[in-house]
Amino acid sequence: MNNEKPQSVWENSKIHILLILILSLLVFSPCVSGKFLWDDEHLIVHNPMIKSLKNIPLSFTRSFFYQSFETPQITYYRPLVTILNQLQYALFGLRSVWWHVFNLVLHGINGILFYIFLCRVLKISRKGGFLAAIIYCVHPVHTEAVCFISGRTDLLSLFSS
Fold this sequence. Notes:
This protein has helices at 13-28, 39-45, 79-92, 96-121, 126-138, 143-147, 152-159. By secondary structure, the protein is mainly α. The chain has two domains: 8-35 and 96-161, no CATH class; 37-93, no CATH class.
């Protein structure tokens, strides 16, 4: 005989993870049809630095805006983002839909990582962690990071930490 009581929906992490991913994708899915905007033009469309994988080593020694037609005073160091831009350019060229899809999926993964952090590290109940992760995933404060391709630095900072 099995004396275990069945898990409720609130206790099932797999369902939570699936719902977090689905809601993240649904809420921000309209951005997929967007084009390159604002700094995307400088950092992606007209940036010779990302147009060759041979430049990957330079990503560790050059500023984020190197050769991107931005003001020379901006000296952000973002090698992970630059390398990711180089890889995406090699795979997708300037088809903006795939750049947006990548940001969207990364946001969904971040929502899942946030849920796992809340439940496993902070020991919040699965129900509480799920609700907090849903709020995180659908909150409009993330619009710029998800829909603006150059805003991916914010997405990557959670993902890589």
